Amino acid sequence: GAVVSQHPSRVICKSGTSVKIECRSLDFQATTMFWYRQFPKQSLMLMATSNEGSKATYEQGVEKDKFLINHASLTLSTLTVTSAHPEDSSFYICSATRGTGGPYEQYFGPGTRLTVT
Amino acid sequence: GQNIDQPTEMTATEGAIVQINCTYQTSGFNGLFWYQQHAGEAPTFLSYNVLDGLEEKGRFSSFLSRSKGYSYLLLKELQMKDSASYLCAAMDSNYQLIWGAGTKLIIKP
């Protein structure tokens, strides 16, 4: 149990366009979902935390108007990278937990590799 | 500030034992996680420690000392498939994970 999927796994887009990444919990209800970005040979960088039905909480330095997060249901969260630029090229990973406010294990999706040309 | 330190890279021999250390400084503490991440893939959960001591799970064990802000991951009977990055993450008082940069483990035959 506790499977998280992401779609697409890879995407190439042109500079200035927008890209939507979906994160789904397949066999559990994800009260909280997290979006991370990881550059080569670097650690995971938390971008934002979202709870179902409420606005996402963005980490310092992450532009909320550029990285739109929607957590419309207990099994789906989406990240939209708007007006993408080459510096947005990265590995984007989502994770989900079953609860809030506790030391819950995060279940990770397989990641989405975004390349902006 | 909050900080996690772990070695950047380690090399070990197939069949041997390796210990990956992690020290942490967080605002409050709600446990220490270890994740394994193969290149180009997402992290997978290995262990969670919230009390002092050693937790053993097959070939992998994880140790925690809260007074020292220290943890280690012990891998026994190393296999080539264990070549990966190992991420240490401490959970602070807000239940946020503070991630280390990861230790790249290289296994040689």
Description:
Chain A has 117 residues and is mostly beta strands. Chain A is 0% helix and 50% strand. Chain A has no helices and eleven strands. Chain A has strands at 4-7, 10-13, 19-25, 32-38, 45-51, 57-58, 67-73, 76-81, 90-97, 107-108, 112-116. Chain A is globular, with a radius of gyration of 13 Å. Chain A starts with a strand and ends with a strand. In chain B, a hairpin with a 6-residue loop joins strand 4 and strand 5. The mean pLDDT of chain B is 95. In chain B, strands 2, 4, 5, 9, 10 and 11 form a six-stranded mixed beta sheet that branches. In chain B, strands 1-3-8-7-6 form a five-stranded antiparallel beta sheet, with no helix packed on it. Chain B is mainly beta and 109 residues long. The termini of chain B are far apart. Chain B contains no helices and eleven strands. At the A-B interface, strand 5, strand 9 and strand 10 of A face strand 5 of B.
Contiguous low-pLDDT stretches of chain A (5 residues minimum) are none
Shape of chain A: globular
Output the structural class of chain B: mainly beta
Instruction: Show unreliable segments of chain B.
Output: none
Q: Termini of chain A, distance in Å?
A: 37 Å
Largest interface: A-B, 22 and 21 residues
Tell me the β content of chain A.
over 45%
Estimated helix fraction of chain B: under 10%
Report helical residue fraction of chain A. under 10%
Count of DSSP-assigned helices of chain A: 0
Order of helices and strands of chain B: EEEEEEEEEEE
Principal-axes geometry of chain B comes out as: globular
Please summarize the sheet with the most strands of chain B.
Answer: 6 strands, mixed
**Main beta sheet of chain A: strand number and arrangement?**
7 strands, mixed
SSE topology string of chain A: EEEEEEEEEEE
Number of strands of chain A: 11
User: How many whole angstroms does the radius of gyration of chain B measure?
Assistant: 13 Å
Instruction: Compute the CA-based radius of gyration of chain A.
Output: 13 Å
Beta strand count of chain B: 11
